[in-house]
Structures are given as C-alpha cells and as structure tokens.
Amino acid sequence: MNENANESERTPVEQRGLYFEEFDTSATYLHRPGRTVTEADNVFFTTMTMNTQALHLDSAWSETQEFGQRLVNSMFTLATMVGSSVAQLTQGTLVANLGFDSVVFPHPLYHGDTLYSETVVIQKRLSKSRQGQGIVALEHTGRNQNGVIVATAVRNLLVRCREGAA
Predict the structure, then answer these.
(1) Strands 94-104 and 114-126, how do they pair?
(2) Which residues does the UniProt record annotate as the domain MaoC-like (predicted)?
(3) All structural domains of the chain with their residue ranges
C-alpha cells in the first residue's frame, strides 16, 4: 500500500480481543501499561460502591492497624486487574463473563502502588450447547511494582469462535 494513501485507500483495522481458537495455553499475556493507584481512585471507588470500611477511608484509624496505612479496596484491585486484560483478550469477542472460581488477595495494594496484570489460559473447550462459541478459563495475576502478587483470580468466559469455525 502506498504510504501516502488517501483515506479511501486505507484498510480499517479495529482492535479486538482473541477468538476462541487464538487463546494460547502456552502463553503468558502481559497487560501493559500498569496502573498506578491514587488515593482519589481508592476513595472514589470505595464511596461509589458504598463500602464504608475504615481501612479504605479513615487514614488516622488505619495508621493504628496492622498495615499502618489505608489499603486499596480489594474490589478495585480485582476490577482493575481483570479490566486491564480486556483490550488484549476479550474486546468484541466476549459473549459473557460466566463467573469466578477463586479470588485471592495475598498482599495489600497501597496508594501509589502500580498494578501490573498478566493472564494465562488454564483451560479451554468448545461449548456443548452454544455452537460457534467456546469456554475459556483464565487465571489473572496482579503484581505491584516490586513483583509481589497482590491478587489472583480464575475467571470463566464464553467467547466467540472465528466465523465458520466449530
């Protein structure tokens, strides 16, 4: 294609996630960039979701507790970890999020930490009841800027197959 092509000669390329056949069980999908979590993110998410837990909102009280400071709301951590995978894995190819088998928070996330997420495919199979669709089990892992795991989640998805496949 001519590098000086006019708009009518250009091929449109739309960003999308992976079709069932493209999910690679031998890959680790790194979702970048990371997301540095601010105090405003935590307070807004916590109050928006009506979570009145003092560990997220009360700085003076939290300083007297085990971690010595406020913790980032774990639901924010989960949502951000999963959300960071969407553009790379499921944008436009997801039929439904079927649920989570496990969610674990082995270490807290703090204001100012950067969350980096990655995903591996732990299982996939064609749907028995929905032709042209497959079920994929993903394990998401979130790490802080020091590589410490702050969250893991196993999520099951229903995704589209390529048109005409399966």
Answers:
(1) unpaired
(2) 27-141
(3) 17-160
